[in-house]
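Hi U.,

Before I forget, here's the chain from the pilot set. I'm dumping it here mostly so it's searchable later in email.
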Amino acid sequence: MHTYDIQTFEIPPIEGISKKQIDAHLALYEGYVKHANILVEEVMKLHNSDNPNKHYLMKELWRRYGFEFDGMRSHEYYFNAVVRGPQALNTESKLGKKVTEWVGSYEELENILKFVTGTRGSGWTLLVYDKHQDFLEVVWVDEHHLGHLSSVDIILAIDCWEHAYMIDHDTTGRGAYVESYLAAINWSVPEKWFDEVVK
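Structure:
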């Protein structure tokens, strides 16, 4: 049986996102890891049991698993992108060149990210790479397990659920929060992820 480990992140102070907000958000992430592990463990127990209803119960647990797993993994992209402090996108990196080819400049990419994060409702804004067509795209995902595009690789994940900013802002504060998050990104991390998926 496999289990997932809770990752730790070297997150420096971020202007506009308080330590209290980050700590609460990290606790939520840890809950996703815990629950993904619980689901795997419980499915394996049922699999090895003589419970007459085990197939039904296992299927219901697996139905929940996508939510917990994607919540865990999306938050790992989210937090890892701000480790060790902000660093601008290197326009000579593979990702930088692909962004320029796609939309002309980092500034335009940021405009697109800000526009999509303004989507009504809770969810995620993802910068993804479609290796089948060699495209970058910015997409909106409602829940962790609903709306993902099959086979694309995540390059950047911006959490647009209220839990990401409600300690620092009210319900109208998403825009200010997104500005703070974008300013805090260490783009060398998404650049590394992009290098890995374009090999």
